[in-house]
Amino acid sequence: MAEKKWVYVFNELDQATKYVGGAWDDVRGLLGGKGANLFEMYRIGLPVPPFFTVTTEACNAYLAAGEKFPEGMWEQELEALKKIEEASGKKFGDPSNPLLVSCRSGAKFSMPGMMDTVLNIGLNDQTVEGMIKLTENPRFVYDSYRRLIMMFGSVVLGLPDEAFEEPMDEFKAHKGAQADTDLTAEDLKELSEIFKKVVREQKGFDFPQDPIEQLRLATEAVFKSWNGKRARDYRRAENIPDNLGTAVNIVTMVFGNMGWDSGTGVAFTRNPSTGERKVYGDYLLNAQGEDVVAGIRNTEPIEKMVEKLPEAYHQFMQICELLEKHYKDMQDMEFTIERGKLWMLQTRNGKRTARAAVKIAVDMVNEGLIDRKEAIKRVTPKQVDALLHPQFDEEGKKKAKKEGRFFASGVNASPGAAVGRVYFDADTAERMAKEEGQDVIMVRPFTKPDDVHGMLAAKGILTSEGGATSHAAVVARQFGVPCVVGASAVRINLEKREMSANGIVVKEGEWISVDGGSGEVYLGKLELTVPKLEEQKDLLTLLQWADEIARLQVWANADYPKDAQRARSYGAKGIGLCRTEHMFFEPERLPIVQRMILAETTEERKKALDELLPSQRSDFAGLFEAMDGYPVIIRLIDPPLHEFMPDEEKLLEEVITMRVKGETEGLVEKEKLLASIRAMHESNPMMGLRGVRLSIYMPEIVEMQVRAIFEAAADCTKRGIVVKPEVMIPLTGTVNELKWIQPRLVRIAKTVMEEKGVNFSYKFGTMIEIPRAALTAGEIAELAEFFSFGTNDLTQMTFGYSRDDAERNFLVLYVEQGILPKNPFQTLDREGVGKLMRMAVEDGRKTRPDLEVGICGEHGGDPESIEFCHIIGQNYVSCSPFRVPVARLAAAQAALKYS
Q: Where does Mg(2+) bind (predicted)?
């Protein structure tokens, strides 16, 4: 039996492809995204240093075996090392001609939470001397050595960054050095000894001098990082499975810190913030890669490289064009120039802002690189949502500047605007956001992968250092968090928990406003405005393409004409839910509603309802006018009556106070009201007298509502408006309820049309929100012409959870502990609630083949739930107006996935 292959060398892509069956996605799964792209760049002839990759399968086997290398893996890694020795003409650990390597993690999906890169593995006290003889550049060699000890100590040995940063800052201050590049060879040699002492004191053993031991420990560190907190947090945020594992990439070192004819950089083939078709990035001369990404030194824009290294610059521009055409997507690349020679270290599909994602997708269709279907797949619903995020009004910013509230400016790294309280570390930011419910702006000199959990919790991010490709910028863009980086005027004092700029001090907990679009930061709170969809041409184009592909229509939940108008402007093709009881809560109507509820005779109740009818008719007319030509589903009154009444405890307090004070005026009326409210008391009102039960108990209410609906529809029809009213009877549990109430309401509808002398199509249907209704859907469809799933209540009743209580008490714990995969009130539970829905659709259509089916619960705007609605054959989803664009894209993506 052939030995299991755990390690692939740079020229073995064909073997890896054959092993997984040929699909590129599976190759990425085996070799990780970073490794797979290294292999592919080598295959197409780009300058890639010799390398090998330890597979993700090895990582999973290592973790499953209790952190032990799988049999044969380490031996294969040492054999692979020999092959890159041959290719490079150098030998690992040989003082006369040492091979140095970097160690990088690389999962299938790019994960900022994974292990940081370790450079210069293979250096020790002996190979340092050999490198000096070979290069005749002691400064470069000692710079590389101190970097290895520093990176290895923090990344592999787990020491805090401060253990190295603090002595380094003290050393630079002692030497009068502003930047790392100001240190001499002797300085860096001395610093290397200081760093070795840090390792000895904090770990109790010496920095490993054996290069093979360095490689082994670094490989293990990559595997272990897969289960680190920051990696788990990231996977949870991005819904990445925990069983993928990470690959280990061992790459021959090339050096950007060998002098001023060397350098390193990170660049994108297009602007990741705006989507502009222009290479965008940063580079540094005489530096190694982490200097650019970490933002420790201020970088130069990539276009300036042509002035210092023109040959390498022009070669890199050609490679950018080649890679974008090859991968048919915007690329994020890392490169190093060693003594004028360009080396490519990485390419991957670049993270981008929501705005850039949409523009790049649309532009690439127009350029002929991709088709419309691929463009729709490229943009995520989350990105569409981010495009409609609040922004600061320009006039508001001008006013703030006049008031002296401008604080600082930096690089506009991730668009959008955020207002929040300042916190200076990730743990505090996360705690204040989650436990205290605060809006948080996380402020750091620069961020690292350890900070990801705080960045996810924050409304906005501000750093004083770093550039457009720094860690903070990349992560913020990915998650749609507004971010300003490199605000160099800002001085952050982490000990005092404060920052200052231009003489202004901001302490932790104080409010600031961050504009990730302009790169500006303001003191206090600026007012946020919502962008207009009609002004975003690229997004409108993409959504138009989505509508052409989607089978599901997207409707909206809207209770008032202004909501319906907004929904229509966002592309809604109907109103899937109008909650009529919301109209009853209007201040001028509530007293009439209360009088109607407290009426002791039918005549008194009808009199109050007659007063309400004109306002209800006006409400419905406004909806029909706003949705001219589209269906409007109006749900008859649903909540328990006590919700319309004054608070019982507050009223009791008023009565007791009046009695104690001997006040008699109005006391009898209040006592009578209190008695009536007590008489209405229900132990479980959400399962009591509401919905269709209330309609049967007090039919006068819904009779008035149906008359108002049809009078409004008739009046609109006479004015030339195309009306499509659909009346929804809520909370049906048995077909007999419909048999009792629906014929009465249909008679009223027909009577009104006869009185008005008009005809128009209409439907009567029901809301499926009780499990029994789903189980008996075949019977219910005998009367109901449409079903609308009220998945908020259907989820409550199926799980037996009170939504409010569950989310406040145990639901978060259930998700964290894996008892539930997701919050079922946010994403549909397919196995339970979904099974009831599927059954209801199938049985309902057996009875009524043309049965219209939709959903109007909160799940109607959730992409994963929308996908399920597509699968079970619904006609539409209905969501809040603001989520309509997101739902339109999600509906198209579901159609593409299951076409």
A: 769, 793
Q: What is the CATH code of the structural domain delimited by 137-208?
A: 1.20.80.30
Tell whether residue 791 is among the known ligand binding residues: yes
| 428 carries a ligand binding annotation | no
Q: Please check if 659 is assigned to a binding site.
A: no
Given pLDDT bands bounded at 50, 70 and 90, which one contains residue 139? very high
Among residues 59, 320, 453, 471, the one annotated as catalytic is 471
CA 242 to chain centre: 18
Q: Which positions ≥6 away from 828 have C-beta within 8 Å? A: 791, 795, 834, 837, 859, 862, 864, 865, 868
Instruction: Give the architecture-level CATH label for domain 389-530.
Output: 3-Layer(bba) Sandwich (3.50)
Among the listed residues 59, 320, 716, 856, the single catalytic one is: 856
Written as six digits, the tokens of 253 are: 């070192």
Asked if residues 255 and 140 have their Cβ atoms less than 8 Å apart, the reply is: yes
Q: Which residues contact 669 (CB under 8 A, 6 or more apart)?
A: none
Average pLDDT, the chain: 91
CATH of 1-124+210-253, one of 3.30.200.20, 1.10.10.10, 3.30.1490.20, 3.30.565.10: 3.30.1490.20
Map residue 82 onto helix, strand or coil: helix
Q: How high is the pLDDT of residue 115?
A: 72
859 is catalytic: no
What whole-number distance in Å separates Cα of residue 137 and Cα of residue 290?
A: 21
Tens of pLDDT along 62-103?
Answer: 999 999 999 999 999 999 999 999 999 999 999 999 999 999
471: annotated active-site residue: yes
How does pLDDT run across 158-183, given as a tens digit for each residue?
999 899 999 999 999 999 988 888 89
**Torsion (CA) 312, 318, 320, 322 in degrees, nearest 10:** -140
Lowest mean pLDDT among 142-151, 254-263, 342-351, 649-658: 649-658
Which single residue is written with the structure tokens 């913020």? 476
pTM higher than the cut 0.85: no
Give how far Cα 701 sits from Cα of 593, 611, 697, 706, 708, Å: 10, 12, 10, 9, 11
Tokens describing residue 19: 């092993």
Q: CATH: 3.40.50.300, 3.30.470.20, 3.40.50.10330, 3.40.50.720. Which one for 263-349?
A: 3.30.470.20
CA distance 701 to 225: 63
Pairing relationship of beta strands 101-107 and 246-252 according to DSSP bridges: antiparallel
Residue 579 known to bind ligand: yes
Q: Where does the pLDDT of residue 2 fall: very low under 50, low under 70, confident under 90, or very high at 90 and above?
A: low
DSSP H or E segment with residue 727: strand 724-729
The strand ranges marked E within 445-490 are: 460-463, 483-485
